[in-house]
Specification:
There is one protein chain. It contains 2 helices and 2 strands, in the order H-H-E-E. With 87 residues, the protein is an alpha+beta fold. Strands 1-2 form a two-stranded antiparallel ribbon. It starts with 8 loop residues before the first helix and ends in an 8-residue tail after the last strand.
């Protein structure tokens, strides 16, 4: 079963800020590009089996069904809507 993967506007903004920081402040544009590619690739894989990552332990997010996916030194938090088949 495939799910639609959507990014919240806050996630898009945070990703953009991180790319800018790595590229402009740390002066590592190639690292920024690789990080963005890896992040995009891993997030896209949530279209199948999105529940393979555990619920976060922190409240109130645990009760709300928020999951936590580690990608290198970053954490991606996401919600699975089984009814709509959307992550």
């Amino acid at each position: 079963m495939h799910y639609e993967v959507k990014l919240a506007i806050q996630a898009v903004n945070q990703i953009g800020e991180t790319i800018q920081y790595i590229s402009k402040i740390l002066l590592e544009p190639e690292t920024a590009r690789k990080w963005a590619d890896t992040l995009q690739y891993e997030i896209k894989k949530l279209d199948t089996m999105p529940t393979r990552y555990p619920l976060t332990e922190e409240e109130p997010w645990h009760t709300k069904g928020i999951r936590k996916m580690p990608i290198k030194n970053f954490l991606v938090y996401y919600l699975v809507d089984e009814e709509k088949k959307v992550v």
